[in-house]
Design goal:
Low-confidence stretches: 1-7
Strand content: under 5%
Mean pLDDT: 87
Distance between the termini: 40 Å
CATH superfamily: Ferritin, core subunit, four-helix bundle
CATH topology: Ferritin
Structural class: mainly alpha
Order of helices and strands: HHHHHH
Largest sheet: none
Length: about 160
């Protein structure tokens, strides 16, 4: 993260969301290939497509934001906080996401991992929403609603496993 001189850019936070969605895409893509339950394979394919769409949406938002800094009580306040959230992320990178899809302990374990990912993403996006200018918050809200639906869908399929 570019926290030079204590200035933390909102676009850097949005880049964290881009990275999470990117890794989520690979998790769901891999899960679609290796899940045993046909309903889970189908759902994972759908979620992979949606995660790719979210990645593109966050790239567009990041590029639109350009250089802007959040209002902070002290320099680096949000950098410290968001770094804590990102350090607790489910998928450290693309390779880790693929590995978790394959090695989470079967379908039930993979869905549990996906639920954790979606919860972490919702927490991160809720905090990110506070940092973007109000004119961008509706875009973030739409993505939050879609992530919330992912969580509901995963919870339903988890009951079937």
């Amino acid at each position: 993260m570019g926290n030079e001189g204590g200035i933390f850019q909102v676009s850097e936070i949005v880049q964290m969301a881009v990275d999470e969605e990117h890794n989520g895409y690979y998790f769901y893509k891999t899960l679609a290939e290796c899940a045993d339950h046909p309903g889970l394979r189908e759902m994972a394919e759908t979620l992979a497509v949606q995660e790719r769409g979210h990645e593109k949406a966050f790239i567009a938002l990041r590029d639109e934001l350009g250089v802007s800094a959040p209002n902070e009580s002290y320099p680096g306040e949000y950098a410290d906080y968001m770094a804590v959230l990102v350090n607790g992320k489910t998928f450290p990178d693309e390779e880790g996401a693929i590995r978790l899809a394959k090695e989470s302990g079967g379908d039930a374990g993979a869905v549990d991992t996906a639920i954790l990912f979606e919860k972490n993403t919702l927490l991160f996006l809720g905090e990110m929403r506070k940092l973007v200018a109000s004119r961008y918050q509706e875009k973030v809200d739409i993505l939050i609603d879609e992530e919330r639906q992912h969580l509901v869908d995963l919870s339903h399929i988890r009951k079937e496993l």
